[in-house]
Amino acid sequence: MHTGEAVTIVHGEQELLARTMHLFATATDVACAADDLATWATAQSTDEFAELVRDRHPGDVRLRKLYRSALLLDPVAAQRLARDRDRHGAHIRITTDEINETIILDRRLVILAGDLSGGRRSYSIITQREAVQGVTSLFDAAWRPATELAVYDTQIAEIRQLAPQVLDLLSQGVKDEAAARTLRLGVRTYRRRVAELMDALGAESRFQAGARARELGLV
Amino acid sequence: MHTGEAVTIVHGEQELLARTMHLFATATDVACAADDLATWATAQSTDEFAELVRDRHPGDVRLRKLYRSALLLDPVAAQRLARDRDRHGAHIRITTDEINETIILDRRLVILAGDLSGGRRSYSIITQREAVQGVTSLFDAAWRPATELAVYDTQIAEIRQLAPQVLDLLSQGVKDEAAARTLRLGVRTYRRRVAELMDALGAESRFQAGARARELGLV
DNA sequence: ACGGCGCTGGCAACTTGTTGCCAACCGCCC
DNA sequence: GGGCGGTTGGCAACAAGTTGCCAGCGCCGT
Question: What are the structural domains of chain A?
Fold first, then answer.
């Protein structure tokens, strides 16, 4: 057994960025997870940082970003992700679970977001090998079953506004007749909606549609 | 910014147990996650440990255990979980995702399983506040959407052996006619299976059944 | 106003799914 | 063998879902 100086705490994105920017500059394997774009990802657009990233060719670095599906409901955020993917060749996946903000560099260093204190979020920087491994394993477990952004995007964007309530009614097991009445639609039109929904989900039966919808976190 | 001696590594369950047993004895909030019962949970049945746990009254301690659904497919393991729940008043939930072996004590100390080296698994013990917080947040995120064992159990146990292939066929969007042929069943019988399945899932429509099945990780 | 375009919803024909009924069948125990 | 409980699967009646067709309506732009 041994003990090492392995965890460093920084407060606020500014400090985090200042301390780790040089690491991002050389890292060849970056993995990160977040519920939203509110924090370090925003700071990422700092001029210096942007410059730094711009200098790197896609292919130099393996970028994996894992976001929560709810994020996609915001068109601006969604566009931002797509841009990230196109400009930096980032692999972006979407999960339906909540996830703590996490960054892993080259499987050798972990940054975990802590809580807010005095308006600034604290971050733990971990370099201890076994701990990094543990966190990496947690990340991989979340990454593997997550859906590719491109897939998720095309499937969802249309659907969510196409059939917001239809999904609810279906998942409540309401019969078409009653569902149509609820939505003040003709049965024909309601069923048209269901058909469009199934089409968008690539489902051939309602059972399949249900499974897919749940899979995508729509219900 | 400050740096602390925050991570301790131990090798093998024996050492882990020796080092942390006293902590389990006094902890009032224990959270753990695992894919299987193969490791520390087995060691848990050590005589000393059993003795130690037996002395504590349920209610003294909040025990949360998160396991992977695949575990339930093994009847022995399933029974073990149920016993754990009944004897120690543990809250047990099931998730469909893989999850790294993790133990959190009183939200103040984290044990993360590392990899195997020389036949012994290594464990990182973390006490650093922010890091523990980060891991706790990850755990909570996994815990929240997970299903209560009791619920999961009654729903699943029967189903899995009731309708293993039926689920597959349904989720492939195969029509009853074809599905029945595939299983060399009469259409009537196949539909009987589907009905039983839906009943077990508490679903009133196939859409609902699909969503539930996906929710429970059955498809 | 007029025509085009898109969405709506009634109708109808058809498919698929849901259920009760019952005869046939199988394994088992007496 | 004969009775018994459980499963099977054909039949049928009915409910639910799927689709094409088409008339009606509102919203443009000309």
Answer: 7-151 (3.30.870.10), 163-215 (1.10.10.10)
Closest CA to B87 of B61, B106, B126, B48: B61
Helix or strand run (H / E) with residue A45: none
Bridge partners of residue A110, in order along the sequence: A104, A126
Distance of CA A39 to the CA centre of its chain: 14
Question: In chain B, what residues touch A102 (CB-CB under 8 Å)?
Answer: 134, 138
Residues 172-191 (B) near nucleic chain C, CB < 7 A:
175-177, 187-188, 191
Give, in Å, how far the C1' of C6 lies from the CA of A84: 36
Out of A11, A142, A205, whose CB is closest to B173? A205
Neighbours of A157 (CB within 10 A): 15
What are the tens digits of pLDDT across the range B35-51? 766 555 454 555 556 56
Write the ipTM: 0.57
| pLDDT single digits (tens) A7-50 | 888 887 778 888 888 887 788 888 888 876 655 545 455 555 55
Structure tokens at B172: 């492939």
